Amino acid sequence: MMTVVTLSAVHHSTAASLPDLSLSELVAWMQSHGFNAAHAPRVIRGLLAAAELKSRTDFLLPEKLEEQLKAAFAAESGSLAQKQVSADGTTKLLLRLRDGRTVESVLMPDYREDRAAGCLSSQVGCAMGCDFCATTQTGFERNLSSGEIIEQFRHLRREAHAAGRVLRTIVFMGMGEPMLNLKNVLAAIERIADPKLGAFGWRQITVSTVGIVPGIEELREASLGVHLAISLHAPDDATRADLLPMGRRFDVNEVLEAADRYQAASGRITTIQYCLLDGVNDSLAQARDLARLLTGRRMHVNLLRYNPTGLSLKGRSYRPSSLEQTEAFLAELRAHGAIAHLRRARGPDIDAACGQLRRRAAALA
C-alpha cells in the first residue's frame, strides 16, 4: 500500500546555505572571522554524517563557531515537500528548493535488509528530450548547486536511517543530465566521498549519462574513481536517436569508445542501462546486436523494466516489454556472451519513474 505525506512549504532565509560551501570556502570564512580553519573539515563531516553518528565527539564544534555558522548560513538548501512510500519500501522524496523549484530523489531498499541505495538528481528538469522519460516533458529549468545535490544525499541518509537501513550507494540517475552540470556534481561528490570529509567512498557512487562524450572525458580527467553508467537503450543509431535525441550527436560507437577510455583509466566496470520497451528495442535480434557491441568489453548490462509515464513528447504511449519477452531478451544476451542482469521494478504503486512526482505535484498546485 502506498503512503503519501505532503508537507507545507517552509520559508528560508536568503543567506547562503551551509551545504553549498566547499572546504576552501569554509576555510576562507573561518580565517576571516578569526576561527581556526582546522575545524572546517569537521563542519562538513558533521553536515554529512549519518544520523547514528551525530553524537560522536569528533563532530563537536566550539560553541562560538557553531553560533556564528548558524547566524551566517542557512542550515539547508531545501526542504521536504512530499514523500511517497511504496509497498516494496521504495521511498520517493520531492524536495522544495529555496527558490521554490522542486526536485526528486529516491531511496531503494537493497536485497540486504540493512542496506539501501539512493538516486540523486543533478538538474531541475532536463533538456535531453528522451522520449519515454517524464522529466523531459516539463523542460529544463536550471542546474542544481552542489549544496542542493548534497541536500538530497542528506535527506536520503535520514530516510534510510529511519527505515533501519544504511545508505550504501548512490547513483546520479534522477532528474537531469549529470554531464551537463558536471562542475557541481563533482563538487558534491568530492565532499560526500572524500575520506577526510563525508567519507562515503568513491566506489559507492555512480554517475550516469545519456552519452555526452565530452562529459565522460571530463569525468575521466577528474580521476575520482567513481563508476560510470551509460543509458544506451538501443544497439543501433537509428533506434537510439529516435528515443534519445542526443544519439544524433554522439553515435553508439563514440559513446562506447569514451566509456572504454574511462574504464581503462579508472579500472571501474561500466554499466549499460537498457530500458526495455515493447516492440521498440526488445527483439532478440537487438539483443544479439547489443551482445556483439559488448564483445571484448568488460561491461555489464542492466536491463530495466519501463514504468509508463503517459503520452511521450512525440505523442507515443510506450509499454513495458512483457515478462516473457524480457526473460527471452536477457537469455539471448547471456547466450551471446554478455554479462546481464534484470533490475527489479521499484515502486510500481507510486510515481516512481523519474519526473512523475514532480509533474503530478505541479499539476495539483
Descriptive report:
The protein has 365 residues and is of the alpha/beta class. 33% of the residues lie in helices and 21% in strands. The protein contains eleven helices and 13 strands. It has an eleven-stranded mixed sheet. A two-stranded antiparallel ribbon has the order 6-7. Strand 8, helix 5 and strand 9 form a beta-alpha-beta unit. Helix 4 packs across helix 5 and helix 6 packs parallel to helix 8. The protein is elongated. The N terminus and C terminus are likely disordered.
Shape by Cα distribution: elongated
> What is the element string, with H for helices and E for strands?
EHHHEEEEEEHEHEHEHHEHEHEH
The average pLDDT score comes to 90
| Largest sheet entry | 11 strands, mixed
| Percentage of residues in helical conformation | 25-40%
Number of strands: 13
Radius of gyration of CA atoms, rounded to a whole number = 21 Å
- Terminal-residue CA separation: 24 Å
Low-confidence stretches: 1-14, 358-365
Count of DSSP-assigned helices? 11
Features:
single chain, 365 residues, alpha/beta, 11-stranded mixed sheet, two-stranded antiparallel ribbon, 11 helices
Write a compact overview of the structure shown.
With 365 residues, the chain is an alpha/beta fold. It has helices at residues 23-32, 40-48, 63-72, 146-162, 182-193, 213-222, 237-243, 252-266, 284-293, 323-335, 356-364; strands at 3-6, 78-85, 91-97, 102-109, 115-120, 123-125, 140-143, 166-172, 205-209, 227-231, 270-276, 299-305, 339-342. The chain is elongated, with a radius of gyration of 21 Å.
